[in-house]
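Input set for joint prediction.
Command: fold jointly, output tokens.
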Amino acid sequence: MPGINDPHAQLKKFITDRMAISSDHLAMLCAKFRVKSTQRNEILLQAGDVCPYIYFLNSGCLRVFLMDTKGKEYTRFVVTENRFGTAFPSFTLQEPSLASIQSLEPSEVLYITYYDYQSLNDAIPGWDRFNRIGLEIDYIASIKRIESLITMDAKQRYKQLMETQPTLIQRLPSKIIADYLGISQETLSRLKSKK
Amino acid sequence: MPGINDPHAQLKKFITDRMAISSDHLAMLCAKFRVKSTQRNEILLQAGDVCPYIYFLNSGCLRVFLMDTKGKEYTRFVVTENRFGTAFPSFTLQEPSLASIQSLEPSEVLYITYYDYQSLNDAIPGWDRFNRIGLEIDYIASIKRIESLITMDAKQRYKQLMETQPTLIQRLPSKIIADYLGISQETLSRLKSKK
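tokens >
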């Protein structure tokens, strides 16, 4: 029931800030997103499984990460509130995921299945455009990530993260930040203390 | 004039293979793409400039690359025939580009301005969807590139390239391949000789 505790309120704002949509279509769309509360460190997707959902975060933080054969973890993306996130290749191609998804903090997430999400393209005028523009933003972010991985050293990557997402550095464990930057925890400590 | 030498023939096939489009809309679209022949090593975009065009390659090969303050180059993407390519963040946001674009081989390219490309979204039904699906593919490729940069060593990256784009290795100078893989030319020679 909508109201001050409407779990779909942030999603509605996110969408109506970005596209014109009728209230009927918005209600239909929201009905396809279910709500879930997650615990710290809960695994939402295990590598090897097909990712069934795309998430919208009301609160909290998810990370998408890879693990090599020796058990070393690599954080591919971090998703925070008022953002969509998923293991994109697996969700989009509906094939087994290389990455896992973990809730780093107790979080409230909305989630929708692949088939329901796809059905919105035909059901809601402008949904393709909404997605096209969202993908442009995500694709640009991933290109910038590639640029930082191929051209920057540890110090430059840390500086970039400080400039673009300073709250992440305060909020997340050092291990996750080091891992996201592709540097050791020792190097991260040294960079933090120099600041 | 359309015919066996129609420079827009490959673009038309690329589009009609992927979406339903009327012949009027297809003709209108093609009229916005101009043709250009490039020379080996010609620079199509200089870093610092706003990227005015997105390209469709009829033949040849472009690379999108970065250069650091010491003049070292880093290849971000390689685009071959029957693909679209541009310095995506600069083109999409119409802001100065960090990357340059270079024609690695004598190439025939079609090119369209940002404003003409944007106008297709409103003019052509289904163009948003065509772009949304193309972006999904490009975004997945960039995620896989991030994965390979953060989790793989030189040998694994070379093996992956051999499996996914073997012709690139034969076709491009060793310097560019080494640079794309983020490894030294010496390491690449060693990997090549091992087979």
